[in-house]
Write a structure and sequence with these properties.
With 174 residues, this protein is an alpha/beta fold. The protein has one domain: TIM Barrel (Alpha-Beta Barrel). The protein has helices at residues 54-68, 86-92, 108-113, 169-172; strands at 2-3, 8-10, 21-26, 50-51, 72-77, 99-103, 121-124, 136-137, 141-143, 150-153, 164-166. A six-stranded mixed sheet has the order 2-3-5-6-7-10, covered by helices on one side. Strands 8-9-11 form a three-stranded antiparallel sheet, with no helix packed on it. The protein has a two-stranded antiparallel sheet with strand order 1-4. It is globular. The two termini are 29 Å apart. The model has no long low-confidence stretch (mean pLDDT 91).
Length: 174
């Protein structure tokens, strides 16, 4: 699996109103979304990426989560569930000391069919220019980049509506 190093930190990409997270860009994607914000990351062998096996990945993840003082992790790309990545990502998700969020262009049926588990949140759906909206995050809500994208909790229950998540008690206790 190819990733961008160093892993970074973000408040904007995790689906709650108070956490920052370690962010990992995983290369490879075949969704071909028009106006993709990370078009170069569609190439699984993107030249600025580093090839790592899952043991190396876990060491990097521990290092950066310790550095950023968080157990929250956001996997994006590319697409973490791209065919060349999915088995490695499923192995990584077995590490239950982390609260994982996954950004994928695939739908929730693909996630369920491929037995992807052990995430706290997952954003599903391709970015679609026709549904574009300005992303916003504050204490009360988060607006996704595209209204068609949907966020689900660990039980594959939909928690976003029309491209927006309300940070209420129900969402905080997922």
């Amino acid at each position: 699996m190819n990733v961008i190093l160093p892993f970074s930190m973000s408040f904007l990409d995790y689906f709650d109103n108070c956490s920052h997270a370690t962010v990992v860009y995983i290369m490879g994607c075949n969704n071909n979304c028009l106006k993709c914000q990370n078009k170069e990351f569609q190439d699984a062998n993107y030249n600025s990426s580093v090839k790592v096996n899952t043991n190396e990945f876990k060491k990097y993840l521990k290092y950066f989560c310790d550095k950023y003082r968080t157990n929250k992790v956001v996997l994006l790309g590319g697409d973490p569930l791209f065919s060349k990545n999915i088995e490695d990502v499923k192995d990584i998700l077995l590490d239950t000391k982390y609260d994982f969020t996954i950004y994928t262009g695939y739908d929730i049926e693909y996630v369920i069919k491929n037995n992807v588990k052990n995430f706290k949140f997952i954003k599903c759906g391709k970015y679609e220019e026709n549904y574009k909206q300005d992303s916003v995050k504050n204490d009360d809500f988060m607006i996704l980049a595209s209204k068609n994208q949907k966020v689900y909790d660990k039980n594959c229950k939909l928690i976003s509506y029309n491209g927006m998540i309300n940070f209420n008690k129900e969402t905080w206790n997922v």
